[in-house]
């Protein structure tokens, strides 16, 4: 008979041994063979020619090992890269690698935010790249930085160092040759109205909110969806949008009250005034008026009851059946499908006081979270030579869309590259051009400046169309393009505050806005309560201070240049 | 070491023997437990060092031990979140009502189905009932939106109204619970069916001979057979009270129904995902766990009084 | 089953009456549950925008098999299916064995330390280290990209183990186990010869639970089996869905085509559900008979 006690002992012993062994191996920071890095000083080592890079890729991409553009670049700069990329669970894997101290030479396409970049730069996980941004190490990039000092400030952390290469896309009206450069995101919501219905009812395209109100009412009373399109009776929805959605929300209609608070990349409801002060529009009187006004529309059944809960698929479903009279989207065709020809742009409408004001949205911010070199890398100079190639316009366009010969077909008489059309792409590859792009696209430090569209490659047709519409039809309604800059850099403490308060602040505001539109605007008491709630519990004042301070520094910087 | 004073069975040489002797008597059982225990130690206990990040400001570059110790900071922040009170209330109520409604239903269904004598009908019913369990939450929420849509949704069509139920905070709980029952009731009957199948059929015969109706047979034979499993289920569910799942609430939540749909799990997700707040979400998770354990112990003690042979521990 | 003759004075409804009431009731429930399932089936072969516009409550609208085609066109489906079978079968056997090995000792009242061992397991139901530490341990034990990483780290499914333990304590007739021990059989023999055969119904339940859990798992495989050739079916389906919605947002807005590609994503959502659930639904009736009433009849007497 086996001695049971011994068993127990053995078992305990084995478990303990296993446990301590594991803990030891995990905490023991081995003598990792890292490169030598000092902030502000370039490491001249050029021995390493094989690099391990980890990061993200497009869900449609088959990986980078056989990417012709990347392989050519590697051959040209004399290095070889081992890619470890994924489109799923990237952040977990990244964290695990950093926590387990198993760093690759660089991270690509991860999209670290400034908070992380600052921290990792601070403790040395990411190396400082400032000494390499010279003509000697990176000629292409340093030239760009010289010509665009705002890009350089956008990637400089508040400790003065740069921990990642710049990335960003500036698709704007300069790309179609306009004298001013307005980002394609400036006005994300294009409102549209069914002209066929208006004609049928003998109405003109509205120019004020009141006129729109009349039109909506007429749509409803005459059940235009049934009458004009032969749909089921009662299926007319005069106006349908999402709520606070980026290109399909209701925010453009607030212009009549002096603001358009669509979601943006900084903080919702944040506005920059002409005098350099920042405010939250959601505690202003205009906002209160707007909400109260639109509640009436909602109560009258002119706004879609489902606006607060529907997703974009539901909206498209309704619009493509011809139920909806007025809506908003990036542009008309896609939303309205077969009925698109009946719709026209609905201009920015004047409010009850006869004015309108559009706050543009920022777009095309620059960040430095797409390429970060870690302390493991022994010869950053070699690796950066490779990445410097990315800042050549003809190269970056291929990294963004696809190789010459696949995505880009030929050059026109001005030497500008033309891209494959949707039909050609389907015929040749069995998939649309958008999908093709998705497959060929490489994630990483791509910088696409507005003038590339004029000098190097032609923009996608739809983009051209939209930018033209933006410039010709919509921008004339904008009097002031002042908007909070998206490239502001925040200090660690500020980032902490934003981190902490922003989510609950935005959430509280959105909730109240919805409830008021649905149930009725706030009484004086409710309004005051709301403001104190935002101030005391949601850190509104702290947020204001953070954004104000950051802006002051930013504008100070810009002036000094 | 405690020893359960078993009154039902007396093995010839029972209590009273020295401990070591009892251990060696049962050596085979310990051997059986060896692998499970080893696995549990390696894969469950060792990783537990990760819990400490609830008290640290975890930064991936510093690792677990290197991250700054912040003590109860996260808990303090959690308690001072603007909607803390509402979140707690909603989480508890949602869970409680879910439990209240969805606990009895599988039992009743199992009891009924067990008595059905048409085998094919019974089998088909069981398979159909159990099918919804496999539908992913995403699809279920998509369907809910379609069925409840104010413009053409089934419910509004039948009732002749056009209410957007997903924006009514009073409707949220009902929607959540009803869809939960639809999804999981059929799954829940499985264990009960298995227990009932072990009931000696001669008992039924005897009862019939005595003139008992179907209802009485259910009450006096089936229910007692299920008693210990029922109580066990109840205890386990109570012990999971604070774990309102994140995904379904998040998919059904709109800006307008937050009065009842604002729950802890979604809040942590919204706070955490943007900023990868591992520490914070671990701390909140720990808070949830502690509450669950308190509940577990309490319910276990009460249950012990109801059903002597059942206890979690 | 022949109808019972009415003997004595029944109180309440007659046998026949009860049967009818029962069947009617169950049918109503059957209908309520089945309708939404039917709806998903219809939706998977209809145009999604019609579905969302509420046009498909009874019959499909714009019948199309594109959703299914898109899923089956992916070459990974077959590997996914094979992998799923492999993982499910091995995993189920492993899990059920673990459950039994743990539950039985804990159900023997006379075993010393029973309570503490139970607590030892139960704690793991509530406390866990989190994903990153667990991953590190799994890596240290060399299981990354190894099928066993799907089963070993899960250890013992404590919730299920408790149910099985409870079953052993309360549903196995004590006379049987006692008789066996009096006859001089060791604990192990009692376990194998008496307890296991008598617990067929709960074993069937645990087999079903394990099968379903392993069949549906995609998360664990995503983390521990990064190589694509090892992906099980749900992961493959999920990737197809993601690719599709990535296509949609790629083409979206800037270059157009969102609505079109979104349509495909929606269709795939519905059809992949049907595809993923189908095997489990087909298998279930076979396992069902193990927990039908009267299955154990005669076992005790024998």
Task: Please summarize what this structure is.
Chain A has 561 residues and is an alpha/beta fold. Chain A is built from 21 helices and 14 strands.
Question: Can you describe what's shown?
Answer:
The complex is a heterotrimer of chains A (561), B (313) and C (302). Helix content of chain A is 42%, strand content 10%. With 561 residues, chain A is of the alpha/beta class. Chain A is globular, with a radius of gyration of 28 Å. The N terminus of chain A is likely disordered. A 4-stranded mixed beta sheet of chain A has the order 2-1-3-11, covered by helices on one side. In chain A, α10 packs parallel to α19. Chain B is 68% helix and 2% strand. The longest helix of chain C is centred in the first third of the chain and has 32 residues. With 302 residues, chain C is mostly helical. Chain C starts with 14 loop residues before the first helix and ends in a 14-residue tail after the last helix. Chain C is built from 13 helices and no strands. Chains in contact: A-B, A-C, B-C. Chains A and B meet through α1, α3, α4 and α19 of A and α1, α2, α3 and α15 of B.
How would the blueprint of this fold be written?
The complex is a heterotrimer of chains A (561), B (313) and C (302).
Chain A: H1 4-27, E1 50-56, H2 68-77, E2 80-86, H3 90-99, E3 106-108, H4 114-122, H5 139-147, H6 149-155, E4 168-169, E5 190-194, H7 195-201, H8 209-221, H9 224-229, E6 237-239, E7 270-272, E8 278-280, H10 285-299, H11 312-321, E9 324-329, H12 332-336, E10 343-345, E11 371-373, H13 380-388, H14 393-400, E12 408-411, E13 417-419, H15 422-429, H16 433-440, E14 447-448, H17 452-455, H18 461-474, H19 492-519, H20 524-536, H21 540-560
Helix pairs in contact in A: 5-6, 10-19, 19-21
Chain B: H1 19-25, H2 27-45, E1 56-59, H3 63-66, E2 67-69, H4 73-79, H5 84-102, H6 104-115, H7 119-130, H8 137-148, H9 154-159, H10 169-197, H11 201-209, H12 214-238, H13 246-252, H14 258-261, H15 264-275, H16 278-306
Antiparallel strand pairs in B: 1-2
Helix pairs in contact in B: 5-10, 6-10, 6-12, 7-10, 8-13, 10-12, 12-16, 13-15, 15-16
Chain C: H1 15-44, H2 48-52, H3 66-73, H4 76-107, H5 114-126, H6 131-140, H7 158-171, H8 174-182, H9 187-198, H10 200-216, H11 219-224, H12 233-251, H13 258-288
């Amino acid at each position: 008979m086996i001695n049971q006690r011994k068993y127990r002992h053995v078992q305990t012993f084995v478990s303990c041994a296993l446990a301590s062994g594991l803990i030891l191996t995990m905490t023991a920071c081995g003598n990792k063979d890292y490169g030598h890095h000092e902030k502000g000083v370039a490491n001249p080592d050029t021995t390493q020619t094989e690099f391990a890079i980890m990061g993200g890729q497009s869900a449609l991409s088959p990986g980078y090992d056989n990417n012709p553009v990347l392989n050519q670049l590697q051959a040209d700069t004399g290095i070889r890269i081992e890619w470890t990329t994924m489109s799923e669970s990237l952040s977990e894997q990244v964290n695990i690698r950093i926590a387990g101290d198993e760093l690759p030479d660089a991270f690509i396409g991860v999209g670290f935010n400034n908070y992380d970049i600052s921290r990792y730069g601070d403790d040395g996980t990411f190396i400082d790249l400032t000494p390499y941004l010279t003509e000697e190490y990176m000629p292409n990039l340093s030239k760009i930085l010289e010509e665009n000092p705002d890009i350089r400030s956008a990637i400089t952390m508040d400790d003065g160092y740069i921990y990642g290469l710049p990335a960003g896309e500036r698709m704007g009206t300069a790309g179609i040759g306009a004298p001013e450069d307005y980002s394609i995101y400036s006005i994300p919501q294009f409102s549209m109205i069914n002209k066929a219905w208006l004609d049928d009812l003998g109405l003109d395209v509205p120019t004020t909110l009141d006129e729109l109100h009349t039109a909506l009412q007429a749509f409803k009373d005459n059940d235009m969806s049934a009458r004009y399109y032969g749909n089921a009776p009662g299926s007319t929805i005069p106006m349908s949008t999402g709520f606070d959605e980026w290109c399909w929300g209701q925010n453009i209609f607030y212009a009549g009250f002096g603001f358009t608070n669509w979601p943006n990349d900084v903080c919702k409801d944040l506005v920059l005034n002409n005098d350099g002060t920042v405010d939250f529009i959601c505690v202003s009187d205009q906002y209160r008026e707007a909400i109260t006004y639109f509640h009436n529309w909602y109560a009258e059944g002119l706004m879609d009851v489902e606006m607060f809960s529907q997703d974009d698929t539901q909206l498209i479903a309704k619009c493509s059946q011809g139920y909806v009279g007025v809506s908003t989207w990036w542009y008309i065709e896609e939303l309205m499908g077969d009925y698109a020809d009946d719709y026209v742009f609905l201009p920015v409408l004047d409010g009850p006081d006869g004015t309108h004001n559009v706050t543009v949205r920022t777009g095309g911010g620059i960040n430095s979270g797409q390429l970060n070199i870690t302390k493991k890398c022994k010869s950053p100079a070699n690796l950066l030579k490779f990445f410097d190639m990315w800042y050549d316009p003809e190269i970056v366009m291929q990294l963004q869309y696809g190789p010459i010969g696949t995505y880009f077909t030929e050059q026109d008489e001005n030497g500008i590259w033309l891209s494959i059309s949707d039909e050609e792409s389907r015929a040749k590859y069995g998939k649309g051009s958008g999908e093709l792009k998705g497959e060929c696209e490489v994630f990483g430090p791509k910088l696409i400046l507005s003038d590339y569209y004029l000098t190097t490659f032609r923009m996608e047709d739809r983009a051209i169309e939209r930018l033209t519409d933006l410039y010709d039809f919509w921008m004339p309604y904008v009097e002031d393009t002042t908007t909070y800059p998206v490239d502001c850099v925040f200090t660690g403490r500020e980032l902490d505050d934003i981190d902490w308060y922003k989510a609950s602040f935005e959430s509280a505001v959105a909730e109240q806005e919805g409830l008021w539109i649905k149930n009725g605007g706030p009484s004086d008491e409710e309004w005051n309560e709301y403001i104190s709630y935002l101030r005391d519990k949601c850190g509104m004042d702290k947020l204001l201070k953070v954004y104000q301070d950051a802006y002051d520094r930013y504008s100070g910087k810009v002036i000094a240049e | 070491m405690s020893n359960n004073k078993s009154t039902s069975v007396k093995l010839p040489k029972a209590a009273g023997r020295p401990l070591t002797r009892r251990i060696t008597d049962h050596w085979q059982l310990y051997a059986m437990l060896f692998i499970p225990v080893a696995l549990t130690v390696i894969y469950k206990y060792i990783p537990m060092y990760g819990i400490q990040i609830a008290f640290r400001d975890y930064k991936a570059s510093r690792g677990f031990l290197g991250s700054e110790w912040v003590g109860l900071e996260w808990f303090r922040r959690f308690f001072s979140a603007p909607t803390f009170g509402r979140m707690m209330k909603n989480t508890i109520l949602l869970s409680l009502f879910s439990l209240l409604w969805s606990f009895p239903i599988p039992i009743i269904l199992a009891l009924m189905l067990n008595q059905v004598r048409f085998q094919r009908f019974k089998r088909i019913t069981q398979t159909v009932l159990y099918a919804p369990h496999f539908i992913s939450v995403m699809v279920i929420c998509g369907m809910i939106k379609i069925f409840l849509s104010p413009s053409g949704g089934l419910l509004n069509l039948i009732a002749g109204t056009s209410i957007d139920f997903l924006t009514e905070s009073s409707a949220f709980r009902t929607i959540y619970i009803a869809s939960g029952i639809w999804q999981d009731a059929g799954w829940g009957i499985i264990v009960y069916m298995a227990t009932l199948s072990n009931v000696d059929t001669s008992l039924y015969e005897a009862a019939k001979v005595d003139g008992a109706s179907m209802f009485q047979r259910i009450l006096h034979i089936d229910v007692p057979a299920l008693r210990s499993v029922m109580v066990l289920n109840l205890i386990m569910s109570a012990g999971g009270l604070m774990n309102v799942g994140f995904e379904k609430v998040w998919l059904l939540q709109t800006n307008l129904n937050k009065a009842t749909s604002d729950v802890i799990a979604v809040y942590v997700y919204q706070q955490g995902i943007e900023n990868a707040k591992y520490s914070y979400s671990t701390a909140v998770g720990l808070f949830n766990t502690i509450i669950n354990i308190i509940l577990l112990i309490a319910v276990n003690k009460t249950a012990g009084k109801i059903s002597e042979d059942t206890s979690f521990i | 089953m022949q109808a019972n003759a009415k003997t004595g004075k029944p109180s309440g409804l007659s046998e026949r009456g009860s049967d009818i009431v029962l069947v009617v009731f169950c049918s109503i429930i059957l209908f309520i549950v089945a309708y939404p399932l039917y709806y998903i089936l219809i939706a998977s072969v209809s145009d999604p925008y019609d579905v969302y516009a509420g046009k498909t409550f009874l019959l499909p609208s714009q019948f199309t098999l594109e959703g299914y085609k898109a899923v089956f066109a992916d070459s990974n489906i077959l590997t996914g299916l094979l992998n799923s079978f492999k993982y499910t079968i091995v995993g189920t056997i492993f899990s059920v064995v673990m459950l039994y090995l743990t539950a039985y000792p804990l159900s023997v009242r006379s075993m010393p330390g029973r309570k503490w061992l139970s607590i030892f397991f139960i704690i793991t139901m509530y406390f866990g280290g989190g994903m990153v530490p667990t991953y590190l341990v799994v890596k240290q034990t060399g299981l990354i990209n190894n099928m066993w990483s799907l089963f070993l780290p899960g250890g013992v499914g404590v919730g299920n183990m408790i149910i099985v333990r409870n079953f052993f304590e309360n549903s196995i007739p004590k006379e049987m186990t006692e008789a066996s021990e009096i006859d001089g059989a060791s604990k192990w023999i009692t376990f194998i010869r008496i307890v296991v055969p008598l617990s067929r119904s709960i074993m069937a339940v645990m087999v079903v639970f394990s099968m379903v859990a392993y069949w549906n798992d995609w998360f664990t495989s995503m983390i521990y089996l990064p190589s694509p050739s090892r992906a099980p079916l749900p992961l493959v389906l999920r990737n197809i869905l993601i690719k599709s919605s990535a296509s949609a947002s790629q083409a979206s807005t800037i270059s157009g085509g969102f609505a079109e590609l979104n349509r495909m994503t929606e269709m795939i959502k519905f059809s992949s559900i049907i595809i993923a659930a189908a095997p489990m639904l087909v298998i279930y009736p076979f396992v069902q008979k193990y927990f039908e009433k009267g299955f154990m009849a005669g076992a005790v007497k024998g």
